[in-house]
From TrEMBL:
Pathway: Cofactor biosynthesis; riboflavin biosynthesis; 5-amino-6-(D-ribitylamino)uracil from GTP: step 2/4; Cofactor biosynthesis; riboflavin biosynthesis; 5-amino-6-(D-ribitylamino)uracil from GTP: step 3/4. NADP(+) binds at residues 148, 164, 190, 194, 290-296. The keyword DNA repair does not apply. NCBIfam families: eubact_ribD (TIGR00326), ribD_Cterm (TIGR00227). Its cofactor is Zn(2+). PANTHER family: 2,5-DIAMINO-6-RIBOSYLAMINO-4(3H)-PYRIMIDINONE 5'-PHOSPHATE REDUCTASE, DIHYDROFOLATE REDUCTASE FAMILY PROTEIN (AFU_ORTHOLOGUE AFUA_8G06820). Converts 2,5-diamino-6-(ribosylamino)-4(3h)-pyrimidinone 5'-phosphate into 5-amino-6-(ribosylamino)-2,4(1h,3h)-pyrimidinedione 5'-phosphate. It comes from the Bacteria. This is Riboflavin biosynthesis protein RibD. Its EC number is 3.5.4.26, 1.1.1.193.
């Protein structure tokens, strides 16, 4: 199952709205088939592994990282494919919470006389599929908030200078993290200050995540890197209903996708933003700030993972904080996360935190 999970991670970020599933078929002590969800979501992991296994699949065990699908979509159900191939046993972590499946795949396998074992590496699988499961259950994608800051929690000097706080090793790792998410999201302030491209670079990866910018009034530079590449790399702009019509038309003309979202107390409603992104099929969003957007997500309890890169320098109290004001009066009202890992990345320190239940 650990191997199947590692295979499924290969196309995280490239197969939405489908889950990134892995499948390993074992006959005796020999692996006879391996598969993982292909870019764009087709083919699924199970048919890929079954094709590789061929006749050796009969009587074999299939390790699958999510309940095999049971519905007819663009392809036949994976549960049906496993049955037709003569698989004798299926091992999976848990049911798929997608209502089109939700136990029906397991039921098909049992009715066909296939032995079923569940609960294997379910915690690890839950983390890998957190985005897909959240979209099925709550309608929104998983959010990873990434912050690169100084030792004293600042992301820029008082003048706004921020390049570069962390070193090249950390920045390269961030590009790898971008590639494993369906979308990279930033706020309008980050776009105006840094003129980012938000693309994956220098890793030999052709696939690019969707670039999402949250800007209530669409006050974004029309001559910046995002505007110049809007026709080549997907760019979605989440804005309030009162955004200027000429700006909307200008960005549409450049090739951007405009996503109208609700506004609460003068600020764009991040819960509605994520619902709209979920409706569009996104399952994993990598938020890279800035401080105001980070505070909005945290304040609305919409952050599922925290990734921090801390550099060995100090900027001081006049620098820009990594996270904007949250209005907390008591520490017991602050969201708590569980530490997953810490490690040195070049001259910087990575610390990765997840919600307690993930």
């Amino acid at each position: 199952m650990a191997l199947a999970l590692s295979l499924g991670r290969r196309n995280q970020g490239a197969c939405w709205p489908n889950p990134a599933v892995g499948c390993v078929i074992v006959k005796g002590t020999r692996i006879v088939g391996r598969g993982w969800t292909a870019p764009g979501g087709r083919p699924h992991a199970e048919p890929m592994a079954l094709e590789q296994a061929g006749a050796a699949a009969r009587g074999a065990t299939a390790y699958v990282t999510l309940e095999p699908c049971a519905h007819h979509g663009k392809t036949p159900p994976c549960a049906e494919a496993l049955i037709k191939a003569g698989i004798a046993r299926v091992v999976a972590p848990f049911e798929d919470s997608d209502p089109r499946v939700s136990g029906q795949g397991f039921a098909m396998l049992r009715e066909a006389g296939i032995e079923l074992t569940t609960g294997v590496l379910s915690r690890q699988a839950g983390r890998d599929h957190a985005g897909f499961l959240l979209k099925a259950e709550q309608g929104r994608p998983m959010v990873t908030l990434k912050l690169a800051s100084s030792f004293d929690g600042r992301i820029a000097t008082a003048s706004g200078h921020s390049q570069w706080i962390t070193g090249p090793d950390a920045r390269r790792l961030v590009h790898g993290m971008r590639a494993r998410h369906d979308a990279v999201m930033v706020g309008a302030g980050t776009v105006r200050a840094d003129d980012p491209s938000l693309t994956v670079r220098d890793l030999g990866i052709e696939h690019q995540p969707v670039r999402v910018v949250v800007s209530r009034h669409l006050e974004l530079p029309l001559m910046g890197q995002l505007a110049r590449s809007a026709g080549d790399v997907p760019l979605w702009l989440c804005h309030g209903s009162g955004a200027d019509g000429e700006r909307v038309s200008a960005w549409e003309g450049l090739g951007a996708r405009l996503v109208p979202c609700g506004v609460i107390s003068g600020q764009i409603d991040m819960a509605d933003v994520l619902q709209k992104l979920g409706e569009a099929g996104l399952t994993r969003v990598f938020c890279e700030g800035g401080g105001a957007l980070a505070a909005s997500l945290l304040g609305a309890d919409l952050v599922d993972e925290l990734v921090g890169f801390t550099a060995g320098l100090t900027i001081g109290g006049d620098g820009l904080p990594a996270i904007g004001a949250l209005g907390l009066q008591r520490l017991d009202n602050a969201a708590r996360f569980r530490l997953l890992e810490t490690r040195a990345i070049g001259a910087d320190v990575l610390h990765h935190w997840v919600r307690a239940q993930i």
